[in-house]
Amino acid sequence: MTRIHFEYAILGALIERPMHGYDLYKSLSVDLGRLVYVGMSNMYAILKQLESEGHVASNPDTGGNRPPKKIFSVTDKGRRLFMDWISTPVESIRDMRVDFLTKLYFLKKLDIPGGRELVTRQKGVCHRILESIGSPETRESEFAGLLFDFRRSQIESILSWLDRCLGFVEAGTGENRARRTHEDVQT
């Protein structure tokens, strides 16, 4: 099944800590609101789907004088799915803006090792894409040449930006709200 980036964002947030649905929504809105957006009702639908697939579990929170709420947590199956996703480069330049940036965010936030490897592998994907576009035929139109130059410039710019990403993933977290080791995330 093809997953959407918000499903992985939910899993990543729940790896950090179990949460009520509304707290999860607020956390993702604050931290990733510039990258991903999903409405509250859609988020609950995604949580329900992830739960039915065994990636997320819920338990009732009956504390206090309010109606019971569900506390969601990630399962071992959900952790494995997330860890597979976060260590895999994106295959499309279009996916760099949301999926790749979401991966960088969670690599840093959860202090997961492997950032250098991910960025290096992502650079390899970009180099392959760059090679696949070849060069414009001399018989093609002026517009085709312009389009070729745009694609080539875009990919070259992304490759330069990926060098900056290496510094980001290699720098100390400074924040590390998750306070988890790689082994904690894996289990």
Write up this protein.
This protein is mainly alpha-helical. The protein has a three-stranded antiparallel sheet with strand order 1-3-2. A hairpin with a 7-residue loop joins strand 2 and strand 3. The two termini are 23 Å apart. About 5% of the residues have low confidence.
Summarize the SSE layout with pairings.
Elements: H1 5-16, E1 19-20, H2 21-32, H3 40-52, E2 56-61, E3 69-74, H4 76-86, H5 99-109, H6 115-132, H7 142-170, H8 182-186
Helix pairs in contact: 1-2, 1-4, 1-5, 6-7
Multimeric organization = single chain
Main sheet strand line-up: 1-3-2
Can you count the beta strands? 3
Query: Can you write the helix and strand succession as a string?
Result: HEHHEEHHHHH
Largest sheet: 3 strands, antiparallel
> Residue-averaged pLDDT, rounded?
86
Count up the helices: 8
End-to-end separation? 23 Å
Beta fraction: 5-15%
List unreliable stretches of 5+ residues.
Answer: 174-183
Q: What's the gyration radius in Å?
A: 20 Å
Q: What overall geometry do the principal axes of the alpha carbons give?
A: elongated
Helical residue percent? 55-70%
- Helix-and-strand structural type: mainly alpha
